[in-house]
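Progress against Task 2.4 (sequence-to-structure conversion) is shown through the following example record, which the project officer requested during the mid-term review.
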Amino acid sequence: MRDASFIPDAGASRLNETHDPALRSFVASANRPEADFPIQNLPLAVFRPRRQGGDFRVGVGIGDLILDIGAMADCLAAECGPAVQACRGASMKALMELGPAHWASLRLGLSRLLREESPFRREAEQHLHTIADAEFLLPLKIGNFSDYLASMHHISKVIRVKRPDHPELPQSFVWSPIAYHSRASTVRTSGYGFARPRGQAGRFEHDRPLTDPTRMLDYEVELGIYVGTSNAHGEPLGVDAADAAIFGYSALNDWTARDMQGWESQPLGPFQSKSFTTTVSPWVVTAEALEPYRVAMSRPQGQPMPPACLDSGQNRERGMPDVRMEVLLLTERLVEAGEGPVLLGASRLTDAYWTPGQMVAHHTLNGCVLESGDLIGTGTISGPGDEACGCMFELTRGGRQPFALPNGEARAFVQDGDTVIVRAHCQKPGWPRLGFGEAVATVLPARPEA
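Structure tokens generated for the chain above:
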């Protein structure tokens, strides 16, 4: 086993043998340079083989396969026992509740089990299933879902469209992360269709408000943060403890009806413009897997450092993982022509104004309880340039400048029949690519008015 040959650089004390970029798996597809799920990743998902049926359970992705963790108890060290047992159910919640020591033990055990020289290769191969032939559920029944506004580039671009003569940022954004509480009940895992939402958007007929389908349906490219461990009621988490409470991350699309949002957000905030659906990838990439890809926190020139309750030397140094996000559009005409999806934007989490640890910490600042399995969205991840727009409102300047697709189609906002794909990965020289899977959903026509 390669448990001593990998020596992290000085100061990289959080790296361990599971991060060794030289590790290879006996699963050949995991060793390809373009693989999303190399042995250094080991993302988790709740699955079952489509053809076999049976109960859903927690598995680990390796190359183009997924391993049934619960079936491997005899091949893993004794300290992995509680985590293996937790993976036999159709939810990651029990695993999350065990805490970071058990998460780390399971990752180490799975890494050793799936390596090229594993003595348990034959046993593991009996419980490997093809990802393409698997069905997936949400990682768990999400208890609470909050969504942040963490990107200065996003809010700046939106404000420049809405009020170009007054592009100043809200003072509150500079000093504290801004969020709202959304609907956990309509978070769905990748690969479904949903009806275009109806609602009020400020359109009237005969002095009566219309309740008609949104005309400004938009996507928002985000990263989902899964809270692993809970805090006690009335006991806020410091930013370092908050960062340590994060179990993992997932690609997320926070669908938004912009016209409904503009109508209902004064004076209270978004409601039906956001609550109709949110798409997440079924895969959760653990926080530990992302340790090699973290970069120091930075702020745009002239911006103040965060207040003491959201600051620490460790948070400044460790910052956040450098996750690269992409959003693609697949129209019905593209499908009919046998063409692939079109890239609409590419951005990076490191362009965010607030780190994930700061978002989690701020959520608890007033004593609010975060529970194992709560989901937090980063908010739209956008960069400074036009190629780094995290939503169509930015890309098309509020719909005024439609985006031209290579096949001659144009989009001001998302249309019926369109499929939006949000995906993410980490990559840097000398280290393998780590993928997060995809968050995919298709827009269907609005249902008839009741």
